[in-house]
Amino acid sequence: MDNYPQAYQESVENLDFTFEQVGDDFHTARFDARPEGDPVAAFTFEVKHRIPTLTVQLTRESDWRSLYPELKGPDMCLMHFGPNNDMGRFAYGIIAEQYMSKFLRRPNHNSSSIYFTAQNEKEYKWKVSGPILECIDTHAKKCVAQYDTRYQPPQMRIQGEGVLICTELFVTWYLYQTAKQCRWQIKTPKELRSAEAH
């Protein structure tokens, strides 16, 4: 992601979005916004195929997108998984693919938090805080998103600079859920450096 002009960042960061999850299966969940009371589909996960391996697409829906034409960033992400839903690769639109095994990391193997670097080159982490899964800017120590299961249906709130990376937040939320469900062995930064050295 480009480093957007300061004026654009400041105007967008004043936005604050709350989305309601539709569907219990996160592989096929949809997140709706209610800008004027009626639900508008905003982000949708869709299983493209399961054979030979799982492929899931996230789409930022046009109806919601049209309400906020000033929002930049990718409108879709295609995620290809390995056998048994193991870590694979993903790409935003026509941007070069990334390997999940190199993109995600943990500070240590006792931690449930998952770290990633967004396209704006900032580091974030998803961490559990009771019934809430929070995404934190690790440098500024600010919360940019909250997935809250105290609500039924669960809600995703995106605020501040998180609005600038809203598609990436949904993608990494999904990867967090898959990592938890499939018990991925996510490497530490030290292990990643060692793997690259060899």
Question: Which helices and strands occur, and which strands form pairs?
Answer:
Elements: H1 6-12, E1 16-22, E2 30-33, E3 40-49, E4 55-60, H2 62-65, E5 76-80, E6 89-92, E7 98-99, H3 100-103, E8 114-117, E9 123-129, E10 132-137, E11 142-148, E12 155-159, H4 166-182, H5 189-197
Antiparallel strand pairs: 1-2, 1-12, 2-3, 3-4, 4-5, 5-6, 6-7, 8-9, 9-10, 10-11, 11-12
Q: Count of helical segments?
A: 5
> Would you identify the regions where 5 or more consecutive residues have pLDDT less than 50?
none
Given helix and strand content, the structural type is alpha+beta
The helix content, as a percent range, equals 10-25%
- Taken as a percent bin, the fraction of beta residues is 25-35%
Largest sheet: 12 strands, antiparallel
Number of extended strands: 12
* Alpha carbon gyration radius: 16 Å
* Global mean pLDDT: 91
| Basic shape | globular
Task: Report the order of strands and helices.
Answer: HEEEEHEEEHEEEEEHH
For the record, give the distance between the C-alpha atoms at the N and C termini, rounded to a whole number.
29 Å
- In spatial order, strands of the major sheet run 7-6-5-4-3-2-1-12-11-10-9-8
Q: From the structure provided, what is the oligomeric state, counting identical versus distinct chains? A: single chain
